Amino acid sequence: MDQQKYVLSFYIKNGVKTDMKRIGVLTSGGDAPGMNAAIRAVVRKAIYHEMEVYGIYQGYSGLINGNIKKLELGSVGDIIQRGGTMLYSARCEEFKTKEGQAKGIEQLKKHGIEGLVVIGGDGSYRGAKALTEQGFPCVGVPGTIDNDIPGTEYTIGFDTAINTVINAIDRIRDTATSHERTFIVEVMGRDAGDIALWTGLAGGAETILIPEEKFEMKEIIKRLERGQERGKKHSIIIIAEGVCSAVEFASQLKEMANLETRVSVLGHIQRGGSPTAFDRVLASRLGSRAVELLMEGKGGRAVGIERNQLVDYDIIEILSKPHKVNMDMYKLSTELSI
Ligand code: F6P
Question: Which residues sit with their C-beta closer than 6 Å to ligand 1?
Fold first, then answer.
């Protein structure tokens, strides 16, 4: 009888049957507002289900170096509203090698960690995929301001970043109007145009340039001239960093159309700040789901949100799919900015 009680308490952890006793969590790649809310969700969900959680500091580089500490309920208090990541982040070349990955697995085993939640973008997912392929269960949580992870409509941090950008555009528009100027605003997005597209549409930009769509300089000049003929005295052009630098674009405009412009590169401002309610809720839901998957013994998954429902996909498949920018929205933005 006593023996049976012991077995039950060992496997049923607050209503969920699991063998998992100890999990790890790390953040990697470019930080994103809401990562802290995701860490909090992972830690609290795991502790709620009577598991232990270890924080791996400085992403995969901290994993290789064994920078690993136990997290308690209080370790994640007062962080839901903070930008950045309390676990720090890094981009780690060594973890791309088999030797680096082996060192990482050794550290996980040494600390008795049986499953890992990886919060980050596509580079972080690649690390999680490598661990998964070597038999270590990992679940990916999409955390990047770029919104460029397949298998989810939104990534953690995107909403905060676009609100930061829109704030900046509104301010730039004030001065652009006063001085009757054309501004070129460069936003982040090396391969993905989501930040440019959403903020361009929300900010009423005259032109939006994204890496996914080719553009003709002559067309842009014609557009600007058409506006001027109609009496339009100022314009905002949003350019994603993956297209070309705003400075380079401005010098091309000067050269081809003798057009005087001002450039504003928003840079890493876009990555900071307190997460919006949307990002906090998204992070809480995705972080918690990642723990559930590990508890269910489902490693090698990536969680996401589609039509407000939590989903999860094979992380290996996710990485083979291209991210698609919403071309209907792109078309709409050109229609509305005539
Ligand atoms: O992946 C997020 C991102 O902010 C990209 O938009 C940007 O190109 C890149 O990170 C910048 O990286 P770093 O922090 O290394 O300058």
Answer: 30, 121, 144-146, 188-190, 241, 271
